[in-house]
């Protein structure tokens, strides 16, 4: 069920249009015209009706085979009614009905209404195709239509999951109709003309991806009124203070092992380095050993490692050999997972593919020196007191999220320092 | 310690079962040597709980990935014993640095001579080298690695003539005069890096003057030996068959006399030319294990994976067990139609990257 397009090789195709899986050539103006026509239907729905629809979808996923897919839990949880209402409330200044009508949200002189921006063009990355679903669904929730440039790797999963919306029908929302607001296409990276057309038609450009992909997208011409939202490229890491290590060490090992294993560390929110404040020398190394055991359990029981290419395998073998001389290495007999304990200062270069560096740190404040806008997630196991003491100073130059262990790779709102819901609407002010 | 007698044995005379006995004996001596003399090798073995004193299978012997020689100067002899440093060719940054003492150099020379003699006979040949002579004296790593390969041929050469100018174009006048010197019955070997000789073909394939020069060689025994792999030819996507056809046509050499020759700077001496049936043979001086890319476990014949080479040849550095960057498979044992005993294998390709770059693809940290 995940591999409908096995033999698809030519790379200007529309894969999903008109609420159906298709496989044919397309013209950008035709697809754009069609999508814009669908915005009427979205506009006719109330936000409560849309929330109900996504709640039904999340329940459908939970009750199907898909509920067993670990990576879907985050998506499903995020779009359940209570969660989505909460995220919308925070994003829309305490009153998300602003998406439906003119409301008073507390300004002395003004009333507000949030209108959709229109056509959202998403360029998705191949590393974590599921993350792209967040931007597509948030576009729907804010009543925007979406043109999605999928990645050649991972589009099968994306289209399959989108198509599950057709199984949902609530009192007011038919999944088959709402899906007409989304088109998924494949375009060669080299086909600059088509990318340019996509960009010129976008009211919002959302780019997920590495530095090359993002640079080439932002270099495309766009309407002066087009909004850009860039997700990536980012680096993430984690820290444990000595109090948390002593109190919750065992639990932290289990949770952190999941953070390292989900998406095989290819998400921008996946940690590559773990800093440990030691109560006594050897604490960090002990944690590294325990983490190794836990990574092994997760690989064999919960999240088996995906396939890797031979260059990555050699990189892992080479890195292990290097750190046998410069630190200590705890690893699987194959290339599945690797824990490197080293006292080298600073952040380790990300190797990905479940390779995690564990380092002792003397002063947690030092972490602030490693941060800039490229650093995204800092997983934290800090006491309340230490959060208060350190997180402000550490995040001055960078770091957009400080989740607890076990939640590092979970999508949240805000993401990369911005509320996506908010970025996909235009605010209309009306005098009282 | 001296294991020269071992290296003087004929390379393909022993069946695998016989070879394994003598080979393992030599390997054990060298494992002990490097364990005692090389701190890095000792760490490698200790970390794997590998005991050098017990009986062990070759598969259990820990290995270094080739990349380790790019990062560290690893030696098993005092630095003053090092007589030369070999650099690998590197298309991706740092080259390997291999520390060679006299004993290693002597053994390399004996072994390469034995292997090549088995393929090309003991009679020395006139080597026409498709390179510039400066490659032998250059200190640049890239040139130095080509120079190392060429120097490896010296023991086989009656004479060496370099036929490319500094820009690596064919010096047509020079090759003309060299060809005039060659007499009927002379044995000639054209030697080059694979990408370089193919460049010469591409630049001269329509040059009648050049084609006619090589047409003059009629009654001489001719071979083409090329080394260095196909990586640099990847962009033009030429198959081995097409390569042989094109090269054979322009240089007037029968296809079966064109020999692709595989070797690693990290284990220089043990070289692997193609036999007339297109296979590479493991001599008694080395052994091959194919390892799965994911599990790193050894694979059976006809399964492709990383090539690991083991050899007791390296004395001054612990390159006795190396995991190469290359993918290959063992095809058979003792039964190649060419008559050579031992394992034979196919080199498939260099490792390739298929990794997707996404939002986790971080910039420099």
Strand order of the largest sheet of chain A: 2-1-6-5-4-7-8
CATH homology-level superfamily of the largest domain in chain B: Luciferase, Domain 3
Continuous helix count of chain B: 10
Mean pLDDT of chain B: 87
| SS elements, strand count of chain A | 15
The overall average pLDDT of chain A, rounded, is 93
The count of β-strands of chain B is 14
CATH topology of the largest domain in chain A: Aldehyde Dehydrogenase, Chain A, domain 1
User: Could you give a short account of the major beta sheet of chain A?
Assistant: 7 strands, mixed
The CATH superfamily of the largest domain in chain A is: Aldehyde Dehydrogenase, Chain A, domain 1
Percent of residues in helices of chain A = 25-40%
Distance between the termini of chain A: 54 Å
Largest interface: A-B, 55 and 34 residues
> In percent, how much strand structure appears in the residues of chain A?
15-25%
Quaternary assembly: heterodimer
Shape label of chain B: globular
- Global geometry of chain A: globular
Describe the structure.
The complex is a heterodimer of chains A (432) and B (365). Chain A has helices at residues 28-44, 47-63, 70-78, 81-91, 129-141, 155-163, 175-178, 192-201, 211-218, 242-261, 283-302, 310-326, 384-394, 420-423, and strands at residues 12-17, 20-24, 110-116, 119-123, 145-149, 182-187, 204-208, 227-231, 235-240, 271-276, 328-331, 338-341, 355-360, 375-381, 425-431. Chain A has 432 residues and is of the alpha/beta class. Chain A folds into two domains: 12-232 and 416-431, Aldehyde Dehydrogenase, Chain A, domain 1; 235-394, Aldehyde Dehydrogenase, Chain A, domain 2. In chain A, β1 and β2 form a beta hairpin. Mean pLDDT of chain A is 93; it is low at 1-10. With 365 residues, chain B is α/β, with parallel strands linked by helices. Chain B has two domains: 1-81 and 275-350, Luciferase, Domain 3 (Luciferase, domain 3); 123-268, Rossmann fold (3-Layer(aba) Sandwich). In chain B, 30% of the residues lie in helices and 22% in strands. Chain B has helices spanning 4-7, 16-37, 39-47, 68-71, 102-120, 141-151, 172-181, 194-204, 208-215, 240-251, and strands spanning 64-65, 82-87, 97-101, 125-129, 157-162, 187-193, 221-227, 258-262, 272-273, 280-281, 287-291, 305-310, 321-333, 343-350. In chain B, α8 packs across α10. Chain A binds chain B through residues 125-128, 131, 151, 153-154, 208-213, 231-235, 263, 265-270, 305, 307-315, 317-318, 321-322, 324-325, 329, 333-336, 346-350, 352, 370, 374, and chain B through 40, 43-44, 47, 64-65, 67-68, 71-72, 292-297, 306, 323, 325, 327, 351-363, 365.
């Amino acid at each position: 069920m995940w591999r409908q397009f096995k033999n698809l090789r030519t790379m200007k195709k529309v894969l999903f249009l008109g609420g159906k899986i298709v496989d044919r050539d397309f013209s950008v103006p035709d697809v754009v015209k069609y999508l814009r026509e669908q915005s009427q239907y979205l506009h006719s729905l109330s936000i409560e009706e849309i929330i109900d629809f996504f709640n039904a979808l999340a329940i459908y996923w939970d009750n199907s085979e898909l509920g067993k897919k670990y990576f879907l839990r985050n998506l499903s949880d995020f779009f359940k009614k209570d969660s989505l209402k909460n995220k919308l409330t925070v994003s829309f200044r305490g009153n998300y009905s602003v998406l439906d009508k003119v409301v008073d949200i507390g300004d002395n002189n003004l009333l507000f209404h949030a209108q959709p921006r229109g056509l959202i063009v998403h360029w998705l990355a191949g590393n974590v195709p599921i993350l792209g679903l967040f931007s597509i669904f948030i576009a729907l929730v804010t009543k925007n239509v979406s043109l999605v440039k999928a990645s050649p790797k991972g589009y099968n999963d994306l289209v399959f999951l989108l198509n599950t919306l057709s199984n949902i029908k609530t009192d007011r929302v038919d999944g088959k109709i709402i899906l007409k607001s989304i088109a998924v296409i494949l375009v060669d990276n080299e086909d600059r003309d088509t990318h340019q057309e996509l960009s010129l038609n976008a009211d919002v450009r959302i780019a997920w991806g590495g530095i090359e992909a993002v640079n080439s997208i932002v270099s495309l011409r766009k309407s002066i009124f087009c909004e850009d939202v860039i997700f990536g490229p980012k680096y993430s890491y984690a820290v444990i203070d000595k109090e948390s290590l002593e109190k919750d060490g065992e639990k932290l090992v289990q949770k952190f092992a999941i953070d390292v294993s989900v998406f095989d560390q290819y998400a921008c929110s996946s940690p590559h380095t773990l800093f440990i404040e030691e109560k006594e020398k050897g604490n960090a190394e002990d944690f590294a050993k325990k983490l190794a055991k836990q990574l092994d359990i997760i690989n064999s029981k919960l999240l088996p490692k995906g396939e890797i290419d031979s260059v990555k395998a050699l990189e892992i073998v080479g890195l292990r050999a290097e750190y046998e001389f410069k630190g200590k290495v705890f690893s699987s007999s194959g290339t599945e997972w690797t824990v490197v304990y080293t006292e080298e200062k600073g952040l380790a270069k990300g190797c990905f593919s479940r390779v995690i560096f564990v380092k002792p740190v003397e002063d947690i404040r030092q972490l602030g020196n490693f941060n800039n806008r490229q650093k995204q997630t800092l997983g934290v196991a800090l006491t309340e007191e230490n959060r208060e003491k350190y997180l402000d100073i550490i995040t001055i130059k960078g770091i957009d999220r400080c989740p607890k262990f076990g939640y590092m790779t979970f999508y949240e709102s805000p993401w990369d320092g911005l509320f996506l819901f908010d970025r996909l609407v235009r605010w209309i002010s009306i005098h009282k | 310690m001296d294991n020269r007698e071992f290296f003087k044995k004929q390379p393909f005379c022993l069946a695998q079962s016989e070879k394994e006995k003598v080979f393992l004996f030599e390997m054990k001596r060298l494992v002990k040597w490097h364990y005692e003399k090389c701190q890095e090798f000792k760490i490698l073995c200790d970390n794997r709980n590998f005991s050098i004193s017990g009986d062990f299978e070759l598969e259990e012997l820990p290995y270094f990935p080739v990349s380790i020689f790019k990062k560290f100067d690893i030696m098993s002899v005092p630095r003053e014993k090092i007589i030369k440093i070999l650099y690998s060719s590197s298309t991706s940054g740092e080259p390997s640095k291999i520390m060679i003492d006299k004993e290693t150099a002597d053994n390399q020379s004996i072994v390469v001579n034995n292997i090549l003699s088995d393929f090309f006979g003991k009679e020395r040949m006139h080597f026409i080298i498709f390179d510039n002579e400066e490659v032998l004296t250059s200190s640049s790593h890239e040139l130095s690695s080509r120079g190392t390969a060429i120097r490896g041929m010296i023991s086989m050469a009656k004479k060496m003539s370099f036929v490319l100018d500094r820009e690596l174009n064919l010096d047509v006048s020079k090759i003309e005069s060299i060809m005039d010197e060659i007499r009927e019955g002379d044995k000639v070997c054209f030697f080059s890096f694979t990408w370089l000789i193919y460049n010469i073909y591409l630049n001269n394939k329509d040059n009648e003057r050049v084609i006619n020069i090589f047409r003059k060689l009629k009654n001489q025994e001719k071979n083409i030996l090329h080394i260095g792999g196909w990586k640099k030819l990847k962009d033009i996507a030429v198959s081995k068959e097409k390569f042989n056809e094109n090269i054979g046509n322009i240089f007037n050499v029968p296809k079966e006399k064109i020999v692709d020759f595989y070797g690693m700077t990290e284990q220089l001496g043990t070289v692997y030319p193609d036999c007339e049936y297109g296979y590479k043979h493991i001599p008694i001086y080395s052994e091959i294990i194919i390892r799965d890319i994911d599990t790193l476990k050894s694979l059976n014949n006809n399964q492709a994976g990383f090539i690991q080479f083991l050899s007791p040849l390296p004395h001054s550095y612990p390159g006795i067990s190396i995991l190469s960057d290359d993918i290959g498979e063992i095809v058979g044992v003792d039964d190649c139609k060419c008559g050579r005993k031992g394992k034979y294998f196919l080199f498939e390709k260099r490792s390739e990257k298929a990794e997707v770059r996404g939002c986790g693809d971080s910039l420099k940290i």
